[in-house]
Design a protein that fits this description.
heterodimer, A: alpha/beta, FAD/NAD(P)-binding domain, seven-stranded mixed sheet, 9 helices, 19 strands, globular, B: two-stranded antiparallel sheet
Amino acid sequence: MRQAEFVIVGAGPAGLRAAKALLEVGAKVLIIDRSDLLGGQLTKQTHMFFGSEKQHASKRGIDILGLMIDAIKGHENLEVLTNTTVVGLYKDLVLSCVEQDHYFKIQAQTIIIAAGASEKALPFENNDLPGVYAAGAVQTLMNVYGVKPGDKVLMVGSGNIGLIVSYQLMQAGVQVVKLVEASSQIGGYLVHASKIKRLGVDITMNTSVKRAIGNDHVEAVEIWQLDEAWQGIPGTEEVLEVDTICMAVGLAPLTELLQQIGAKVKYIRELGGNVAKLNERYETTVPNVYACGDVAGIEEASSAMMAGEIAGMEAAIKSGYRYDNQEARLKTLREDLVNLRKGPHGAKVRAGLDKLGVEV
Amino acid sequence: MIEKNGVPSKELIESCFPDQIVLEKPKAIIECYKEIPCNPCSTSCPFDAIFIPEDINVRPLIDYDKCTGCGICVYNCPGLAITVRMLKGDKVEMKIPYEFLPYPEKGEKMNVMNRSGDIITQGEVTKVHITERHNKTALVHLEVEREFLYDAMTVEVKHGR
């Protein structure tokens, strides 16, 4: 069986930053990603990032990815497997992988799970019609593959993804007919909402989709207002002529691999679903298996980068590697992460981490 | 109401503006109404005019004695929440961020929109600044009538492709 010192599952912002931290001290790293491109969600993030300058704020996500790849590319201790899905994880730290039709196993000494998250969907009549998408899928179509998803879109959800993808749809020349939100307040950053509102996008609260209308594809959508218990109010229905319904209704951490090896996970609503229980070194309850990024709770890419760096460093340190001024560096990273989560938008994550009992 | 539709109230908008006498020179108007973890406006300012403390969630505070209205923060703000405005006779000279292709052209007359997305007037593009440093966010110089000092916010997107 193939042997590996450190295996990182997922090459998004958390995984790539963990890889860099490990390579810095001479560890041997194998990164596995199911996509043909490294970068996870960064591959499609054409907008400028928030956060602090240290985490490349103001640069576009895709350009930050370029910097992250440059930082590790061609490293003699790095091996990358793309188009490869880790389908199984075993207690003796064996990973079973599938690349196209090829199945193989890897014996790892340490594993970092940075598998990210999957998009949640919304149940409504006809939600299987072509033209009903998750927002991230639309973003991938447009920004990675250059494919326009439709001409007239209803966006569902006012979190940052819903707001940002609406803006990017407009940049691609697609009309965003309306953005609806089930809650009574905009979920994402208000600056993102203002940005699309001033360009004429109607933003409506307490409203959701009742059903999609169409025979073999979306031809219209029926929306309705919701009461305080999020139940549709009969008589408030409105039909909008759209060819695309875009759902931006949240993300769920991909913790299945961790559950396979019996790592403790807990359902935390504020963090998006089942998340890994970690100690302060980002190690799961299974020794030598670490987790970082959205697997440990849905957050922004900038926090995933910081968490990835901490997880990578901690994994290296446990295996006997040492960094210059490692205590100070880890302390700064932890403080920056706390700082990022400090504001009102961090309240949900703070509450979630508190429930999970994570010390960060 | 800004929490429900993204449109700030008149009071909120005016709280971001200095006295009109200050606007006889170009000044950045920062419309960042809610705490978010973000600081590029502050770190990009070459004149040290925008202050955000160590807690990067705190809203930016601008020192109008130091601000020159250069517009660097305008294209560095990820929220596109900053514009530069200057009163000049019966006109307002603005610098706004613009991220759509094709970019406007100098001399072009464009529909100008308020924060609700309503077309309120026409303005003239007097300059379009886009270099590598702008990283695809063009700095569009726009001239509108003075009465739109507080209301003008952006221009209608050209869908010329």
